[in-house]
Amino acid sequence: MGEKHPDSGMERKVVKAACPHDCPDTCGMHISVENGVAVKVEGAKDMPFTQGTLCTKVARYLDRTYSKDRVLYPMKRLGAKGEGKFQRISWDEALDTIAAKFKEIAAFDPQGILPSSYAGTMGLVQYASMDRRFFHKLGATLLERTLCSSAGRAGVKVTLGGSVGMDPERFEDARLILIWGSNPVVSNLHLWSRVQEAKRRGARVIAIDPYRSLTAVKCDQHVALLPGTDAALALGMMHVIIAEGLHDADYVARHTLGFAELKERVKDYPPEKAAAICGLTRGEVVALAREYAGTHPAAIRLNFGMQRHSGGGMAVRAVTCLPALAGQWRDAAGGVLLATGDFYGLNHAALERPDLIPNKPRTINLSALGDALTAAEPPVRAIYVYNNNPVAVCPDSQKVIAGFKREDLFTVVHEIFLTDTADYADIVLPATTQLEHYDVHKSYGHLYVLANTPAIAPLGECKPNSEVFRLLAARMGFTEACFSDSDEDICRQALESTHPRMAGIGWDALKERGWQRLNVPAHFAPFAEGNFPTPSGKCEFWSQTALDSGLDPLPAYVPPRESVQSAPQLARKYPLAFISPPARNFLNSSFANLAFALKEAGEPTLDIHPADAAPRAIVDGDKVRIYNGRGSFVTRARVSDRAREGVVAALSVWWRKLSPDGRNANDVTSQALADMGGAATFYDCLVEVEKATGN
Predict the structure, then answer these.
(1) Residue 43 near residue 29 (C-beta atoms within 8 A)
(2) Suppose 154 and one of 234, 341, 358, 677 were both cysteines; which one would form an S-S bond, judging by CB atoms 3.0 to 4.6 Å apart?
């Protein structure tokens, strides 16, 4: 509600909002507005999970909304693709041009049109509603959105039945916490505060990560395994737990499926073998297994970095077997957490309307976009990019760029800024920020639904995704009633659910309050008595679902496609394992163009161990070239033990045009897919490093 300030006479109001970015925390926000201008962004103090704090990026959200670099008007390309030269046009000209081109292509084959979206915003309205309806009705190619999490989600689904796990709010009560392939100081701030509280209460915290991250530095112990070997470590731990009788026999008997088969499988992974695979000592594997099985409650926080390799799905599957084996699910503060998304019962069918699809269109995998744009048959003739910056974030950049350079590829980019991808557009459309549109949010890192109410009117001529697709639907002649739904109509439809966890959550009340917890107990122990959402209702060590999908029904170790052990011939040319975890000051490629983030990030860097730097005559501060058969890029070397020997790490994702040589880490990453979920394998990558000329 607005009120007059007694001194200035200016009208002030506070608007309830939600952070839209690809982060598990999905923070509640309050936006202070004076006379139509947002003047302050702060965390919602009453939101129980995020408790009034924001990361340093989102705390500066006004820098993003009011940036002088915002795209404010529709534009069309001048000059060559990639030059980034545009001329302002009207919305009518832009929409008429797009509709005419889409009609031309659809008359021949609508599969020639490809949507390219991802998680630039994760609100259900702007991420997956009117856009999906539009492309479904059109009969366009379907997009498999796989860049971040799909291998891990598939692995946990095989084992636990879905993207479910322990309540993040209960981590503070754990006695042992394994931070496995996760860096919550950077990417899960509000869980980290609970980990710190657990430490204050006496819990031990162990980081399992090839990289000594900001989180690993603050843990009691750091287990620095080789990239892509997590499944071997989990299997070695299970070998020790079972062989020494440390498992919870009662929980296993009542609430798991396939223990006898698992017992035989883990005999293949004695701790000395697991240690050799992981680059650890036998003692590290044995001690970790004993401590995990002997400490109750013990919590495991996984994140998606550990599944970005060839065996990523199986790695998550193996780790998610551990809590049932050790009986950790008995307590609300025990278990494992990768993501919470499947605890929600939102009405995705109403949002996306797959029933509108008139044909049986093909599917293109976003993780292999370069191949799709250069070699798909029938060819992709038009691409519509929104919530996504594929030229910067998709693997094997040179192939992606080759596709976007095609003169016969009609490209539309709906964006807040002129990104690396927007430079290749034929038509650029101005997009709203979170402060300028409605949305409703779930989270993959807590158990709350949040509402986002627009705080200000759209700047310039910016429009939200939902509105642009409504306008395009009208120009295409689509007459279904769903194309007339307002954004608030869509918010209501998302919440129309008979799922018991959604009971009592409606749009009007949610908008008024800002947030609401799912209908679950405060001390939520979801699997204390089994009741897993698997076909058997049990934690499935042995899985018929996996077998039916052509996968091993038991957890196993799937080695990286590119490693010294699995590809020795390739490793002779490119002997270093390369990973590109998130930079603290960016969020994927979001914020990576803003002055404050660039100032704090400094410049692109490569962490390299002294034992790897010395034979290459590299010293701290040298400019270095990272390369393999796919491409190369240049950064500044940081010589230290942040990366373990044999591993190099380039914190990412930098915009290409803001990088020293106009390239970034994805010049060397591969389009090869993981074992499950069609996922990207960014961290399954061998490179060589050399000193670059010119410092």
Answers:
(1) yes
(2) 677
Check if the beta carbon of residue 287 is closer than 8 Å to that of residue 176.
no
- Residue range 259-305, pLDDT digits in tens: 999 999 999 999 999 999 999 999 999 999 999 999 999 999 999 99
Mean pLDDT lowest among 9-18, 84-93, 228-237: 9-18
Domains of the chain: 75-85+98-148+344-513 (3.40.50.740), 151-338+536-548 (3.40.228.10), 568-691 (2.40.40.20)
Q: Pairing relation of β-strands 623-627 and 11-18?
A: unpaired
Residue 638's closest CA among 604, 661, 607, 682?
Answer: 607
Confidence class for position 693, pLDDT limits 50, 70, 90? confident
d(CA 259, CA 247): 11
CA separation for the pair 479, 186 (Å, rounded): 46
Count of CB atoms within 10 A of residue 434's CB?
A: 26
Polymer length of the chain: 695
Distance CA 11, CA 17 (A): 19
Question: Under a CB-based contact definition with an 8 Å cutoff, are residues 420 and 399 in contact?
Answer: no
Q: How many helices (H) and strands (E) does the chain have?
A: 26, 28
The verdict on pTM exceeding 0.70 is yes
Taking the CA atoms of residue 546, residue 551, residue 555 and residue 559 in that order, the dihedral angle to the nearest 10 degrees is -150
Evaluated on CA atoms 55, 56, 57, 60, the torsion sign reads positive
pLDDT tens string 338-352:
999 999 999 999 999
